[in-house]
Write a structure and sequence with these properties.
Blueprint (H helix, E strand, L loop, with lengths): L7 H4 L1 E3 L6 E3 L4 H19 L9 H16 L4 E2 L8 H5 L2 E7 L7 E4 L3 E5 L3 H4 L2 H16 L2 H22 L3 H33 L6 H13 L17 H14 L12
Parallel strand pairs: 3-4, 4-6
Antiparallel strand pairs: 1-2, 5-6
Helix pairs in contact: 3-6, 6-8, 6-9, 7-8, 8-10, 9-10
The structure holds zinc ion.
C-alpha cells in the first residue's frame, strides 16, 4: 500500500497547532530560512536609507515591544537582541523588525521569513505602548502562523488559472478583477485569524487585548478618506475594520482571560 507521505499533496496538508485549521502549504521550514535572506536583501534594496538604524529611539521602542511579545510567547528572538542561554533559546527562530521612516505611509506588514515592516506613519495611530503592542501582535501573528508562506502556496493554484484566462482574454482590468476575487477571500480569512491569535499573544506578553479593537477603531478614523473604502467589499484583502472590531469585541466578551492582562508595563 502506498504511504500517504509519498503523496506530495498529502504531505503538503497540515494542521496549524495554534488554531486547529487545516491548510495546504508547500513552503518548508528550510525554504523559509532561505527566503528570509532574499527578503531581507530585497527590503534593503527597496527602502535603503529610509530604514531607521536599530539604535534609533523609535526603532528601539518598536523592537523592545515586539521582542517582549515574541520572547514571552516562546516564538523566538529579535535578531541583534540578547537572548537566553538555555538550549531552547539557542534553537529558536530569529525575527527582523524593520522601521521605515515614512510619515506618509500608514502601514505595516509581514513578509516571508518572519520579517516585519512598520512605517513611521502608522505609529501616531497606535497612541501608546498598548496600541503599539496591538499592532505588533497582529503582524507577529501573521509571521508565527506562516501566513506569507501560505499565501505563496495558494498562488500555485491561482497562477495556472490566471495564465489560462490570459490566453482567453487579454483585458488586464478583467484579469486583475479575477485575481482579486480569487485571492481576497483567503486573505480576509488570514486577517481574521491573525486578529484572534494576536489576542492570545497580547495576553501572553501581559498586554491588554482590548487595545487591539481600540487601535483598529483609531485606524478606521485615519483610513476614512483612503482609496480602500472605494473598493467593493468582496475584492478587499482585509475584512472591513468595523467587522474586525466587532469580532474582536465578541471574542473578548466571551473569554475574559483575554482582557485581564496588565498594560503599559515597561
Ligand atoms: Zn494583517
Amino acid at each position: 500500500m502506498k504511504n500517504p507521505t509519498d503523496n506530495p499533496v498529502a504531505r503538503s496538508l497540515e494542521t496549524i497547532p495554534a488554531t486547529g485549521r487545516r491548510r495546504f502549504i508547500v513552503v518548508s521550514s528550510e525554504d523559509v530560512e532561505e527566503m528570509r535572506h532574499i527578503v531581507l536583501e530585497d527590503v534593503l534594496q527597496k527602502h535603503g536609507r529610509k530604514i531607521l538604524c536599530w539604535d534609533h529611539p523609535v526603532s528601539q521602542d518598536v523592537r523592545r515591544v515586539a521582542g517582549r511579545i515574541i520572547s514571552q510567547n516562546g516564538l523566538g528572538y529579535i535578531e541583534g537582541q540578547r537572548r537566553g542561554t538555555d538550549a531552547q533559546d539557542q534553537d529558536s527562530k530569529p525575527w527582523n523588525i524593520i522601521v521605515i521612516d515614512d510619515e506618509a505611509d500608514v502601514d505595516a506588514f509581514t513578509l516571508s521569513g518572519r520579517v516585519i515592516l512598520i512605517s513611521t506613519g502608522i505609529l501616531p495611530v497606535t497612541r501608546d505602548e498598548a496600541g503599539l503592542a496591538a499592532l505588533l501582535a497582529h503582524e507577529i501573528s501573521h509571521g508565527a502562523l506562516r501566513h506569507p508562506e501560505e499565501s505563496l502556496s495558494c498562488l500555485m493554484f491561482i497562477y495556472p488559472f490566471r495564465c489560462f484566462l490570459r490566453l482567453l482574454r487579454r483585458d488586464t482590468r478583467f484579469l486583475e478583477l479575477v485575481r482579486l476575487s480569487l485571492e481576497a477571500p483567503h486573505s480576509r480569512m488570514l486577517e481574521s485569524e491573525a486578529d484572534m491569535y494576536a489576542l492570545r499573544l497580547l495576553r501572553g506578553a501581559g498586554y491588554e487585548g482590548a487595545a487591539l479593537p481600540r487601535f483598529l477603531a483609531d485606524l478606521a478614523e485615519t483610513d476614512k478618506e483612503s482609496d480602500s473604502y472605494k473598493i467593493p467589499a468582496f475584492l478587499r484583502s482585509h475584512p472591513p475594520l468595523w467587522k474586525r472590531i466587532k469580532d474582536l469585541e465578541a471574542r473578548l466578551s466571551s473569554d475574559h482571560t483575554l482582557i485581564g492582562a496588565l498594560s503599559h508595563v515597561r
